[in-house]
Amino acid sequence: MWGLILNRVDALKQLAFEQNTYDGYVVFGGANLLYFAGFPGASALLIPKEGESTLYAYNVNYELAKAKGKDFNVELVSLNENLMVKIAKQAKDFKIRKLALDSLNIDEWRALCKETKGTTKLKQTNQFVRELRRVKEQNEIELMRKAGELTSEGMKVAYEIIKPGMKEIEVAAEIEYAMRKRGSSGTAFDTSVASGPNSAFPHGGCSERKIRKGEIVIVDMGAAYKFYCSDMTRTIVAGKPTEKQKKIHSIVLEAQQNALKLIKTGTAALIHCPVTTVIIFR
How far apart are CA 232 and CA 275, in angstroms? Predict the structure, then answer.
C-alpha cells in the first residue's frame, strides 16, 4: 500500500514540478488527502520540490497520522494554532516561491495569502490531482468492484424483504446490516427507502412510514469498502404491479436500452436516462 502512496506523491511531483512552474504543492480536501496519505483525518499535505513532505493533523487525528503516515513528516496542529500560519512557515523554510494549492476554500485562501505575502506566490489549481485520480490503478478498480458487489448483496436483501407493513427504516437497517456482514465499512451515503408519496422525491430519504400494498418503493443505497464507494438505485413494487406501473416500467426500460446502444467512445453525453424500474412481485 505504501508503495502506491509514495508513487502517487512522486507522480504529483513530476506533473507539478517538471516544467519548474511550481516548487511546492499543498493538497487539501478529505478525498484528495486520503488518496495521497492512505488514511482519513489529515488536514493538509505540503509537498516540496526538494525535501520531505509534511502531513498536518489536528490533535484528534495526530496519533493516527503518526502511526499511518510513517513516510511523511507528521506535524501536530493544536486547536489554538492556525494551520495556514504553519504551512506558510514551512513554505518559507523550504524556500518555496511558487506554491500550488488544491481544494482550498475562500477563507483558507485569504488566510494563506496574508501569511505568505511577499514571500510566496500562490496558485489555486486542481489540474494535477484530477489528472492523476481520473485514471484508476488496478487496486482501485478491485476496491470499486468489491464495493459494487457489496451493494448488489444489499439490494438483493431489499428485493427479498420489501413487503406491505414494513417500515422504510426497517428495510434500510436490513440492507445496511447485510452489507456490513459481508465486509462493508459502512454506507457510501445515507440509505434511502422511499415508499408511496415519498417515492416522488429524487432523494426521498427514509422514515418510519409503513409500506403499503401496491406502492412503489425507491431504494437508493451504496456500500463503502476501504474508502471506495458505490451507488445503486432500484424501483420496487410492494405487491402486484398495476397496468399503469407496468407501462411506466416498459417506457423507462426502452429509454434505457436505447441510451445503452448509443454509449460508445466519442459520443456526446447529451442523453439523460432515468433509472430503470424493476418490478418485484410481493
Answer: 9
- The whole-angstrom separation of Cα 259 and Cα 262 is 5
Question: What's the rounded Cα separation, in Å, for the pair 67 and 73?
Answer: 12
Q: State mean pLDDT over 29-33.
A: 92
Answer yes or no: is pLDDT of 112 > 60: yes
Element (H, E) at 263: none
From residue 63, give the alpha-carbon distance in Å to each of 28, 38, 51, 77, 177. Answer: 19, 15, 23, 12, 30
Categorize the per-residue pLDDT at 6 as very low, low, confident or very high, splitting at 50, 70 and 90.
low
Give the model's pLDDT for residue 269.
73
Q: What is the pTM of this model?
A: 0.83
Specify the CATH superfamily of domain 146-262: Creatinase/methionine aminopeptidase superfamily (3.90.230.10)
Element housing 78 (H / E): none
β-pairing verdict for 228-229 and 223-225: antiparallel
Contact 46, 88 (CB under 8 A): no
- CATH topology for 2-133 is Creatine Amidinohydrolase; Chain A, domain 1 (3.40.350)
pLDDT of residue 21: 83
